[in-house]
């Protein structure tokens, strides 16, 4: 039995996840990430109301997809196809942990290790932007 490369799955191509614990209530983090200030940081220019389950969306830069699942306050799962790119699946989660929140970005169905590393850098940068917006006086440093 051979080992799969790091980030490779049996049926979802390559995947990457980035998470960070933020010293804020989960409800506040969710409102931000799913609202008009947070959406542009991770998805692009789109109206917040466009992200109901089953809805198709398109951002100003031409990225498109469909919302596959939404559990308000906790999880948003959608397909994501940038212009000229292949479709992947992105999931955003917010989990309460004591008085803090764990924010997670997970992407799967990527084509290979190069795309995985590119998206790891992307999601780390997004996490830094989200942290800077929510905690302007704090430093950054995601795991």
TrEMBL record:
It comes from the Bacteria. Transmembrane segments: none annotated. Residues 24-132 form the Activator of Hsp90 ATPase homologue 1/2-like C-terminal domain. It holds the Pfam family AHSA1. Gene3D superfamilies: 3.30.530.20. Belongs to the AHA1 family. This is Uncharacterized protein YndB with AHSA1/START domain. It comes from Nocardiopsis composta.
């Amino acid at each position: 039995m051979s080992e799969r490369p790091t980030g490779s799955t049996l049926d979802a191509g390559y995947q990457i996840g980035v998470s960070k614990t933020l010293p804020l209530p989960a409800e506040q983090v969710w409102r931000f990430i799913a609202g008009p200030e947070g959406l542009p940081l991770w998805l692009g220019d789109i109206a917040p109301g466009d992200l109901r389950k089953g809805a198709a969306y398109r951002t100003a830069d031409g990225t498109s997809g469909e919302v596959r699942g939404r559990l308000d306050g906790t999880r948003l799962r959608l397909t994501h196809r940038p212009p000229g790119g292949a479709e992947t699946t992105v999931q955003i989660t917010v989990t309460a942990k004591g008085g803090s929140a764990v924010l997670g970005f997970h992407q799967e169905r990527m084509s290979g290790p190069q795309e995985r590393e590119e998206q790891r850098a992307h999601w780390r940068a997004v996490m830094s932007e989200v942290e800077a917006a929510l905690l302007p006086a704090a430093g950054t440093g995601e795991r």
